[in-house]
Amino acid sequence: MILVTGGCGFIGSAFVLGWLNTSREPVVNLDLLTYAGHPGNLAAVAANEGYTFIRGDIGDSALVEQILTRHRPRAIINFAAESHVDRSISAPLAFAQTNVLGTLKLLETVHAWWRKLSPADASEFRFVHVSTDEVYGSLDPHDAGFTEQHRFQPNSPYSASKAASDHFVRAWHHTFGLPTLTTNCSNNYGPRQFPEKLIPLMIHNALRGKPLPVYGDGRQVRDWLHVDDHCAALNAVLERGRPGESYNIGGRSERTNLAVVDSICNALDALRPRKGGGSYIELLSHVKDRPGHDRRYAIDDSKIASELGWQPTVKFEQGIRATVQWYLDHEDWVESVTSGSYRQWVELHYKSAVPVA
Ligand code: NAD
Ligand code: DAU
User: Fold this and answer.
1) Ligand 1: distance of its center to the CA of 128 in Å?
2) Fewer CB under 10 Å: which end of the chain, C or N?
3) 293 Cα nearest atom in ligand 2
4) Does ligand 1 have an atom closer than 6 angstroms to the CB of 179?
5) Quick check: pTM over 0.90?
6) pLDDT digits (tens, 9 = 90+) for 98-129
7) DSSP labels, 45-105
């Protein structure tokens, strides 16, 4: 069986759903259920006998040890993290706690257990650490995409914490021989993404007739990767990746934020025309920029493409339309996750987001 951490979040839940849809191999999901974790994301498999949910912290060594001893996973896929850049700017300590210390404690506990496995089991074991392209810092408009050799230059408290975790994962391979692999991927999008991130936030606000807050000039560039393509890449890394290596994963879909908001509004105009006429794009509002905002990310995916035969399959225009449709069809999900604490965050974070010319 495999152990997934953070499986109640956006990407982890897509991974678990995809796994149980295509494999009979059981999954244990260890998730702390922070504001970003929603067990309802996995309601479709909750009664599946191959699925076990355990609420807990990756940094709780006693609990993790118990899980390892009882379930004997052949692999761990570590999704658990604090993941939102804006929150890392207003409250960085939680990012050090989970992303740095949590990952370190998880590595220590896994290593202590793994040392006692038989040589055959130990060499088959895999620890896949899910990380981000943000560890590489920001690119200029004409720079080539990030390769795995690009130097680490994290600019936000979030990316600094993920970079630290990547270094620990690498060290546990180099020093102790733990078969670790790290993936660094670009911006994911798709169903069940918490509406604090750009795409679901814009859909959420548009449907409520609220301003669409674009930071600064909106010409920052991100590479958009459909979450299902990401999960396929993680499966390839798990099954065929080389321990000790890292793999960059991208969607081959670079877009400015303005272009992304435009695509969302076009999809909404077609699928749910605005009451009273006009386009949703009229709600766009430029607001104060994010401090230290990275200008551009781009991925060179030639390593994973040539070594593991993976490439993205979802075209952005098709993926964004399907994503908008998913949010239109799941307003109950949106209602259930946008609780009091969500509203408090939005109020606090966008309070100073007065429109700028
Ligand atoms: P998310 O915020 O939606 O979900 C994170 C999950 O981790 C939640 O279910 C939360 O409850 C859980 N969690 C948090 N702290 C925990 C702890 N201490 N112990 C156990 N569980 C804990 O995040 P996501 O967008 O699904 O991202 C998953 C991973 O992928 C993260 O490591 C993130 O850094 C990385 N990543 C995300 C993106 C993206 O675009 N979303 C891109 C690149 C990398
Ligand atoms: O690159 C991978 C990273 O992508 C992941 O590691 C992070 O976990 C994930 O959150 C994401 O980080 P970003 O900061 O790129 O994503 P976010 O959705 O927060 O913002 C995308 C872009 O949109 C970014 O340039 C900031 C901008 N933005 C975001 C919000 C929430 C706005 O202009 N307005 C907004 O209200």
Assistant:
1) 14
2) C
3) 25
4) no
5) yes
6) 999 999 999 999 999 999 999 999 999 999 99
7) GTT-TTEEEEE--TT-HHHHHHHHHHH--SEEEE--S---HHHHHH-THHHIIIIIIIHHH
